[in-house]
Amino acid sequence: MKIIDVNASFGFWPLQRFTHQTLDALEEAMARNGITEAWVSAIESILFPDPDEFDLPLFRKLAEFPRFRPVKTVNPLLANWRESCTAALKEFPLAALKIFPNYHGYPLGHVELRQLADFAAEYRLPVLVPLRINDERNQPTALEMTPVDPHGLARLAAEAETTTFVALCATKEEAATLLQSPSRVMTDISFLDGEQPLLLLKHRLKGLPPRLLFGSHAPFFYPESSAFKLQYAQLPREEIEGIASGNLCAAMEAEHAAR
Amino acid sequence: MKIIDVHIHPHHVPQLFPDHTLPLNDPAGRADTLVKLMDATGVAVSGILGRVPPFQSEREVREGNDFTVAMVRARPDRFYGMCFINPLHSPSFVAGELDRVLSQPEIRGIKLEIDVNCRDFRLDLVMSKAREYRAVVLQHCWYLSFWNDTSGEGRYRQQGRSEPHDVADLARRFPDVPIIMAHLDGCGVRGVLDVKDCPNVRIDTSGGQPFSGIVEYAVRHLGAERLLFGSDRPGARGFESQLARVQGAAISEEARRKIFSENAINLFRLNEFAAIA
């Protein structure tokens, strides 16, 4: 079964000492858990003002690992975001763009974000939106960060309908909100929890829409977590394969056909 | 590898999902359902924690403990129990209820939640009963960062909730009583350091999302002997994420075996369970 992990990253995060601190270790963990392909962004680009400073060196290293595809972090408030993305696209096989509206401090209705969405659609790049990085209960008081609003993201996705948005790290309540919205927004399984989380979501939604994707949130999380969610899922094989990679491939093909 | 799960909450989950109803008033049926879940995920034995919502009345405490005993009696080959006590009640009730339940072989420990901070003098009676019956005390614990939140987890803001430094205080007052500090991820690095010099404190791995690194940190600072696998299933957490925290950790297989089973077997005297043979 082909598994595409749309929610991986690599680098240094001051609040956590990761188990997987080298690309070799991360790659080995992905392989051990049957993850065929992982979309990897630079963790430092969340906080450092110019993402290129950490993205580009990481992308050069990722080229040595066929399992990894680079993801460009974009802050649409930066004057050069378009040039930065265009240059990266010429040099690297980008899988997606990733935005952090909460960390970078702009509303989901910001005009530059709409332009970024159009840019992503033009290049057929999904826009990944981590709703959170940490558990809000455990954040240091001085570094508390509010999650991205799933309702706002659903509205943005409905307006920018030619762009594929993927919410990452959504809780089961947020995932239900997103998957019930009239938009095409997708979401990953990394933060879904509770006994049989995928089956639970299916019952809650009275069926699993084909917008649920595999994401590990590694190295913040152990990739085993999402891998076990597939392994133990009491779902039909085709639904498990859809989450693993089929839903993503179908969405990208549909977008290609529509264009 | 055999897995012993020291932290499950079967009491307050009326329905898991439509295909897996957990009968509320049927301890035997609920026990059988839980065993199916355990079988599907390789768990040999689980420790049923008492009914734990805060501020329970005396009647609710008794009923919850009776339900725990009944579930264990339904499947004594797969479960042992922890009773619940609310130390806010009168000493006569607390002593009487602990005598009543701890004298039953199904119960091997006491679960404490957030009714009373564990530095409180009212814990003295509870701990003396634990000592008398050779019972393990399992204390809910978490370092919460959002003190001003009044919703959701804000209910855990009560004065009675305990943090790891509180558990360290309790452990120093009662060094001969084994204590499990619940929720490694919630206790975090600071919590590990808080109890490092309290050898009677162990930490269970249950709760929270499977953030990497904390199990390795705890093994480095405490030793694998002081960690126990717990899941917080089936209501609060899923088994998948909790299993990942130990299965994915970069620790030796010997350490993993201790966390998954050996430490619990020794602490709760589980050798008689055929399921772990």
Question: Would you mind describing this structure in some detail?
Answer:
The complex is a heterodimer of chains A (259) and B (277). Chain A is α/β, with parallel strands linked by helices and 259 residues long. Helices cover 41% and strands 14% of the residues of chain A. Chain A contains 10 helices and 8 strands. Chain A has an 8-stranded parallel β-sheet. The mean pLDDT of chain A is 95. With 277 residues, chain B is an alpha/beta fold. Chain B contains 9 helices and 8 strands. Chain B is globular, with a radius of gyration of 17 Å. Chain B starts with a strand and ends in a 9-residue tail after the last helix. At the A-B interface, helix 8 and helix 9 of A face helix 6 and helix 8 of B.
Short summary of the structure?
Chain A is α/β, with parallel strands linked by helices.
Characteristic terms for this protein:
heterodimer, A: 8-stranded parallel beta sheet, 10 helices, 14% strand, globular, B: 277 residues, alpha/beta, 8-stranded parallel beta sheet
Q: Tell me the radius of gyration of chain A.
A: 17 Å
Cα-based radius of gyration of chain B, to the nearest Å: 17 Å
**What's the total helix number of chain A?**
10
Strand order of the largest sheet of chain A: 1-2-3-4-5-6-7-8
Would you count the extended β strands of chain A for me? Answer: 8
